[in-house]
């Protein structure tokens, strides 16, 4: 008699019928759910969903997948936020392409880990081929390299880690407190967070002023770099952003690269958002100069319509990755000459996310992804025109990529009153499940933000969201009795 517990739930050739049944049930469950979706959100509050979830007793399984799926719907799916809904316009979440979802089947079930060759075999080369292809799109030469990461934050952390160790290599002891990172005030917060994680001082990240279009002011960058020299501080890296999170602004990459080249300063380009322009026929030229970077962040899970996670860090010179390398006797001893991705990654066990991009490119091709990027950029441009023409809405800036920053401010409403309405409009839209929009501050003033990443959304869809903002704004004012529409 065997003492082993039952194993009819393991993925194996013995249980393929069970596997197919489980997958089919899950796919059917999802399709039935999505068919019934009629808005981007249901407006569930944190208290409501917390109770649904914490009431579940994890020590008492429901026993079969069908029952567990039904329960999952109650605790999660029924109130999920749907990024394919045209009135979802909050953060950098795109609807995802089908070939990438097909790839997920293989990513999870085969479960390759991209740390060593003997855990991934062809997977190692699939990832490497995609890295090389992305490097070629950037304009890096044959000596370039990179690695897939969990996201832009990790890519930025690794880039700054490489830059830090490059700056410290060969320097006298005690240099760490002298290192500075220069980035525009609109750079992603992961730059600051990375600096902290890397042991740099609390004020190691110096904000470079921006121009009226919210792009890095290169004259100011030159002055800051020269100023650091004078006081004996070291510019460890300049971070240029290709597509800022709020405004989509692309720093003048070529001029920034010129400033870095004069001093041999590491240039990191954070193209987490703007990286999709690499495959855009219409807008690729706006990344000119990116090929002069030492390192580049690209988030495929934003403007390449991939499911989370899918991102990469790319470096112009593969030797720069040496600062990430580590050799463990049990995994990748120095003498082992087989290819091991773990030597390039901050992670050890790592999902084969690259397969999603692979099946996407092999099925749809890069041009279609680029056309989707062009579509959402066009959508933002036309939506901006709608804001400008709208009597009660005010645009902060013309869009650079696919975000639109604006606010509700009918004539006569004070700045402070407009500020106070922003979170209330946003909350009301969420509570009603009608539209999801984001918010940010512009020069200290509250604004709403649309992030448009759905190529299937129409002008009418987005204008509908904007008009809804106007209507809700008036409704809230009327409710205060301070204003009548
Ligand atoms: C989204 C974003 C990041 C962070 O990327 P994650 O994938 O969310 O970790 C970094 N930089 C910019 C400019 C971004 O827009």
UniProtKB/TrEMBL annotation:
The entry's keywords: Decarboxylase, Lyase, Pyridoxal phosphate
The UniProt record lists the keyword Lyase: yes
One Pfam family matching this protein: Pyridoxal_deC
Cofactor list: pyridoxal 5'-phosphate
Domain of life: Bacteria
Record carries keyword Oxidoreductase: no
Coiled-coil regions listed: none
Family note: Belongs to the group II decarboxylase family.
Protein name, UniProt field: Lysine decarboxylase DesA
Source species taxonomy: Bacteria, Bacillati, Actinomycetota, Actinomycetes, Propionibacteriales
Gene this chain is encoded by: desA
């Amino acid at each position: 008699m065997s003492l082993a517990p039952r194993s009819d739930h393991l993925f194996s050739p013995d249980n393929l019928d069970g596997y197919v049944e489980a997958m089919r049930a899950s796919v059917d469950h999802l399709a039935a759910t999505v068919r019934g979706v009629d808005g981007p959100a249901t407006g569930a509050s944190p208290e409501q969903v917390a109770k649904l979830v914490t009431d579940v007793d994890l020590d008492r399984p429901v026993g079969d997948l069908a029952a567990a799926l039904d329960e999952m719907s109650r605790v999660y799916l029924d109130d999920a936020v749907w990024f394919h809904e045209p009135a979802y316009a909050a953060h950098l979440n795109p609807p995802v392409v089908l070939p990438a979802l097909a790839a997920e089947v293989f990513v999870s079930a085969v479960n390759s880990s991209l740390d060593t060759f003997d855990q991934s075999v062809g997977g190692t080369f699939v990832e490497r081929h995609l890295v090389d292809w992305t490097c070629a799109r950037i304009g890096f030469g044959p000596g370039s390299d990179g690695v897939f990461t969990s996201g832009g934050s990790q890519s930025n952390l690794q880039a700054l880690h490489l830059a830090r160790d490059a700056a410290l290599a060969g320097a006298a002891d005690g240099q760490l407190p002298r290192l500075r990172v220069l980035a525009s005030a609109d750079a992603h917060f992961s730059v600051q967070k990375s600096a902290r994680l890397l042991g740099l001082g609390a004020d190691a990240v110096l904000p470079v002023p921006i121009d009226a279009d919210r792009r890095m002011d290169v004259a100011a960058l030159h002055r800051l770099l020269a100023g650091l020299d004078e006081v004996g501080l070291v510019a460890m890296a300049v971070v240029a952003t290709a597509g800022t999170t709020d405004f989509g602004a692309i720093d003048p990459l070529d001029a920034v690269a010129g400033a870095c080249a004069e001093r041999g300063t590491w240039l990191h380009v954070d193209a987490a958002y703007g990286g999709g322009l690499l495959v855009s026929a219409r807008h690729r030229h706006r990344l000119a100069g990116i090929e002069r970077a030492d390192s580049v962040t690209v988030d495929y899970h934003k403007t390449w319509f991939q499911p989370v996670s899918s991102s990469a860090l790319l470096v112009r010179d593969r030797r720069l990755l040496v600062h990430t390398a580590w050799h463990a006797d049990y995994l990748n001893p120095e003498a082992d000459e087989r290819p091991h991705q773990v030597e390039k990654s901050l992670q050890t066990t790592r999902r084969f996310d690259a397969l999603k991009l692979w099946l996407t490119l092999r099925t749809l091709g890069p041009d279609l992804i680029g056309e989707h990027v062009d579509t959402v950029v066009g959508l933002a441009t036309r939506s901006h025109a709608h804001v400008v023409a709208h009597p009660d809405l005010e645009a902060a800036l013309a869009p650079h990529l696919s975000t639109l920053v604006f606010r509700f401010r009918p004539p006569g409403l004070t700045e402070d009153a407009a500020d106070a309405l922003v979170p209330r409009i946003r909350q009301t839209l969420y509570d009603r499940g009608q539209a999801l929009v984001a918010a940010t501050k512009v020069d200290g003033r509250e604004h709403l933000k649309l992030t448009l990443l759905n190529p299937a959304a129409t002008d009418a869809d987005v204008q509908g969201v904007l008009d809804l903002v106007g209507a809700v704004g008036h409704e809230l004012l009327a409710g205060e009795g301070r204003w009548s529409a």
